[in-house]
Amino acid sequence: MTWREQIRPTLMILIVMTVMTGVVYPLLVTGIAQVCFHRQANGSLIYSTNGKIVGSTLIGQSFDDPKYFWGRLSATTPLYNASSSSGSNLGPSNPALLDNIKARIAALKAADPANTGIIPVDLVTASASGLDPHLSIAGAHYQLSRVAWVRKLPEAFVQQIIDQNTTGRFLGVIGEPVVNILAVNLALDQVKRNN
Amino acid sequence: MNWNNGIQLLIYLIVLVVVVKPLGTFMAYIYEGRPAGVNVWFGSFEKWIYRICGVKDDVGMTWKEYAFALMLFNVLGLIVVYVIQRFQGFLPFNPMGMTAVSPDSSFNTAVSFATNTNWQGYGGESTMSYFTQMLALTVQNFVSAATGMAVLVALIRGFVQKQTKTLGNFWVDLVRTTIYILIPLALVLSLALVWQGVPQTLSSSATATLLQPVKDSAGKPVIEQAIALGPAASQIAIKQLGTNGGGFFNANSAHPYENPTPFTNFLEMLSILLLPAALCYTFGFMVGDRRQGWALLAVMFLILVPCLVWSVCIEQQGNPLFAPLGIDQQAGAFQAGGNMEGKEARLGIVNSSTWSIVTAAASNGSVNAMHDSLMPLGGMLPLWLIQLGEVIFGGVGSGLYGLIAFVIVAVFIAGLMIGRTPEYLGKKIEAFEMKMASLVALIPHVFILIPTALAVMIPAGKAGIANPGPHGFSEILYAFSSAAGNNGSAFAGLSANTPFYNIALALGMFFCRFWLIIPVLAMAGSLASKKIVPVTIGTLPTHTPLFVFFLTMVVLVVGALTFFPALALGPIVEQLMLNGVSI
To answer: Under 8 Å CB-to-CB from B214, ≥6 apart: which residues?
Structure first.
């Protein structure tokens, strides 16, 4: 076999592989996905009653109004920028990390001075994607009394909304139980409108 | 470490071990050309590919021909990836109107994907058109993985065949790997991912109206959120299976669209180690002694499992600096606790720690938590696993041929100790094999330590550092380790999308991929030409617990001794500072 004999197979195999793995395969997956899993394949978007997109169940939004539950810190610009995901990449000994945490603690205390509870760690740290739609159950509980008080709703009622938007561990074992913050806040605004 | 952490880890490891035998057997059947379902159904399609491509599939190649075909194919693929990025503005499937990628970033990404590294110097959703993602990046995800597996199979044939010059046909190995192993697995996985919420669409990003407006950097209110979408699932499936690791989105597998649920996390994490683990069984099957495959897998587990447990413990303990601030880091029924900076709530501590270890062990390089924000020792473990030479699982194919090079070193040392000619699987190990194995073991060390030393001395290197103190050094050390190990994960605070890092890292990736493949193939060629020595009472058995332990020690000593001083300057000193030791 001479060296020159390898040139045609090299070119042709690359073309065949490109068509198979770069065109046929992704388009086949797209086709099946659009037919069988239409909602998920298009980003699990949430539509309002008048057909407007108000978010995605998988993409978080930024909240700092006391009437809403707040989610994870986000390191993107602007906050929760779903076109440019990123973590803070602050090292564990970086003073800037502690500054961010202290600023979040101060904001939480300012919004709810009466709350003397110990703050769950995920409420004061940035997520890896900057888009985390979830918070731990403890993180939601910490804010329960504030949101209920600002909205003048019974705490048990707000608790119910949290429970409805909580996902447990997969098969009861894998992953962590979490609350979808955007879903809770959308549900809370819905209550106001209904009244 | 609490009981739930332990159970999650255990389930993962058990499922992994269970799939090794069936998948390993299947792959051995594919490579040996025995009927195994898909290769019967699509056999005529495979023949048709050879016919239109002018491949003489029944002609074997010498090691030099094999290496030449491989290099030609990979370099051509690299050039295509470069050109597509430079011209993506003029190409179709570009609904977001992405413009040409810069020359140095294009070069870095082309090398990165052709070498199975998939280091991301760019942000996927803000840089690459769908055309580039599919026809440049997804293609290389497949063929770079298939290249690694082909080299492994050629090396196995070196042991199996006697007194021949040929190692099989590169094109046949490449095509069979892609169409019978990678595409079917990727199809199934990608559909499972879409079902769970990973997008797969060709339309442009969606625009949502925010419930509460935010402010941009200039203080102006932003009322809309542009949500990047794309054909993500098809790429993520092969990125995990082929130990590639380059994400569709910048945040990689931490992004809720790449890894939406704990179930997808489990599937993706399983996919990372799936082929590297199963290939051990394929190896044992093909050399006719399955114990040899299990022995190598045992070495991998012996190093992997302590790293997993230790990493979970470190991250679960949390950051001592948080304690005085009145923050609850205790794990319980209502929160994961621990060091949650740079981690996702649905994944928590155990799944983030586990992933950080398996992605480093397997030279995958995808991340579901930001390694830069791991605790110092939590970040050191993946760094160290990469520095061991990516032989604990390692890349598909490449991990196992790397470990086999360490086996050669180990039997050589053992041979010296007992005063006998070293043998492995019936082949005499002589000076030539030993030289090639030493190259494989030592070349990455050169490409880690020298560029790191250079980068911390020159302004272009220091300019990239994001975190002060020893952590900044760790960022640079991690970058060059990741490139040399063809891993692709990062301490991502480092601003590496600069001409200096793009070019320096690309060179590291290129040489540490192909300067290892060529010695491995040379070794395979030399082994294939030898006759098989019968087993006698004096033969060193290489499947016993004693040998497993001995080989583990060889891997650890080579890795640990070389890098301990560098690790001491980075993560170790940082951990001491965090714990309040004044220096």
So the answer is: A62, A78, A79, A80, B221, B222
- What pLDDT is attached to residue B289? 95
What was the pLDDT predicted at A52?
A: 94
What is the per-residue pLDDT across A108-138, written as a single tens digit (0 to 9) for each? Answer: 999 999 999 999 999 999 999 999 999 999 9
Residues of B in contact with A122 (CB under 8 A): 335-336, 340, 345
Model confidence at B210, in pLDDT bands (50, 70, 90)?
very high
Q: How far apart are CA B487 and CA B465, in angstroms?
A: 20
ipTM of the complex: 0.96
Which residue among B53, B72, B206 places its CB closest to the CB of A45? Answer: B206
**Can you read off the two tokens belonging to residue B456?**
């911390």
A1–B61: do the CB atoms touch at under 8 Å? yes
- Report the relative pairing of strands A119-120 and B327-328 from DSSP bridges: parallel
Instruction: Please compute the mean of the pLDDT values over residues A175-184 and round it to a whole number.
Output: 96
Could you tell me which of A15, A23, A4 has the C-alpha nearest to residue B76?
A: A15
Taking an 8 Å cut-off on Cβ atoms, the answer to whether A119 and B326 are in contact is yes
Position A195 pLDDT exceeds 80: no
**Minimum-distance CB partner of B8 among A21, A91, A173:** A173
Q: Report the C-alpha gap between A164 and B328 in whole angstroms.
A: 25
Q: Which residues of A touch B334 (CB under 8 A)?
A: 120, 136-138, 141, 177
User: Does the distance separating the beta carbons of B574 and A173 come in below 8 Å?
Assistant: no
Based on the number of CB atoms within 10 Å of its own CB, is B503 exposed (0-12), middle (13-18) or buried (19 or more)?
Answer: middle
Which tokens is B188 given?
């199934």
Residue ranges per domain, chain A?
Answer: 3-39, 60-194
Contact A170 B263 (CB under 8 A): yes
A75-90 pLDDT tens trace: 998 999 999 999 999 9
